[in-house]
Write a structure and sequence with these properties.
Layout: H1 2-33, H2 37-49, H3 57-82, H4 88-91, E1 92-95, E2 99-105, E3 108-109, E4 118-121, E5 127-133, E6 137-147, E7 153-164, H5 167-172, H6 177-193, H7 198-203, H8 205-220, E8 225-236, H9 239-281, H10 283-299, H11 311-334
Helix pairs in contact: 6-8, 9-10
Subcellular location: Membrane
Family: Belongs to the band 7/mec-2 family.
Keywords: Membrane, Transmembrane, Transmembrane helix
Length: 335
């Protein structure tokens, strides 16, 4: 019997050893295939053992903040109810049609487009209201000393028209939208004019204005600002350059005047030549000219009257003068 029991126990041990070796081999293979398998299984077991999920610290803080906010909001409503109807003076706000109100409730913005126009309700202890004007605003850009591309210093000023199209963005994304837009307009004006020649600045104002408007609109879009129009107001040149340009223009005008006078004299000489040819062909034309001159002189109120001598009288005196010259010659011969 003892021998039989020993053989039976030996048979049982021999049958258990292959099973254990198989389990160990399977575990080793699983570890080789996925080394993090046991850790994943342990983590899954721990997650399953927890009844309620635990959030991260930020979520816990947000939950705590929301709880405090709700408590403060309820307390404010109780105060409003206790002070009713006098509390309505502080709880009701009015926004006109050209304005929007951005409401911060305990530091958070309510809504995406703001409140208004019209009447709306606020909680005095929790809400902070900032009104934003949506009308078009105009401002003058101060004169900027700019060095042009051809090394000429000019002073240029401009006018900018803009409006706010997103009240919430204009309040949350920039501290002061108006001041930021003004400073950006000054720098943009200098940058754009620095790439132009003096002749381009004087002749291409519309193109420069369009370029400035495009640059400003692109830069102010994240601020909720829409730049509608930019106009170059005045371009001031140095005094020396103004004098040089004035002298150049005066010289050009004098040259054109001389050319015009020369052309006029040329035309007048041609007309006189044609008139002389007509008078030479018709002696009566000269007599008609004499009569026209007499009528013109008599029409004027002058104390001196000039009577032109006829050509026949002048011819007679010319022949007589010749006779006197001949007599003088004869006297000289006698002497």
């Amino acid at each position: 019997t003892s021998k039989a029991s020993t053989t039976a126990s030996a048979g049982k041990d021999g049958s258990k050893r292959p099973v254990a070796s198989l389990l160990q081999a399977h575990q080793v293979a699983s570890l080789v295939a996925d080394p993090l398998g046991p850790l994943k299984a342990e983590a899954a077991a721990m997650a399953a053992s927890v009844s309620a999920p635990i959030g991260d610290p930020s979520q816990e803080d947000s939950k705590g903040d929301s709880l405090c906010s709700r408590c403060l909001f309820v307390f404010s409503l109780l105060l409003i109810a206790m002070a009713f109807p006098f509390s309505l003076i502080f709880c009701l706000r009015v926004v006109t049609d050209y304005e929007r109100a951005v409401v911060f409730r305990l530091g958070r913005v309510l809504g995406q487009d703001g409140k208004g126009p019209g009447l709306f309700f606020v909680v005095p202890c929790c809400d902070l209201v900032r009104k934003v004007d949506l009308r078009t605003v105009t401002f003058d850009v101060p004169p900027q000393e700019v060095l042009t591309k051809d090394s000429v210093t000019v002073a240029v000023d401009a006018v900018v028209f803009y409006r706010i199209f997103s009240p919430v963005v204009s309040v949350t994304n920039v501290e002061d939208a108006d001041r930021s837009t003004r400073l950006l307009a000054q720098t943009t004006l200098r940058n754009v004019l620095g790439t132009k020649n003096l002749s381009e600045i004087l002749s291409e104002r519309e193109g420069i204005s369009g370029m400035m408007q495009e640059c400003l609109d692109l830069a102010t879009d994240p601020w909720g600002v829409k730049v509608e129009r930019v106009e170059i107001k005045d371009v001031r040149l140095p005094v020396v350059l103004q004098r040089a340009m004035a002298a150049e223009a005066e010289a050009a005008r004098e040259a054109r005047a001389k050319v015009i006078m020369a052309e006029g004299e040329q035309r007048a000489s041609k007309a006189l030549r044609d008139a002389a040819a007509v008078i030479e062909q018709s002696p009566f034309a000269l007599q008609l000219r004499y009569l026209q001159t007499l009528s013109a002189i008599s029409a004027e109120k002058n104390s001196t009257i000039i009577f032109p001598l006829p050509m026949e009288v002048l011819a007679h005196f010319g022949s007589g003068g010749g006779g006197c010259g001949g007599a003088q010659k004869t006297v000289e011969k006698k002497e």
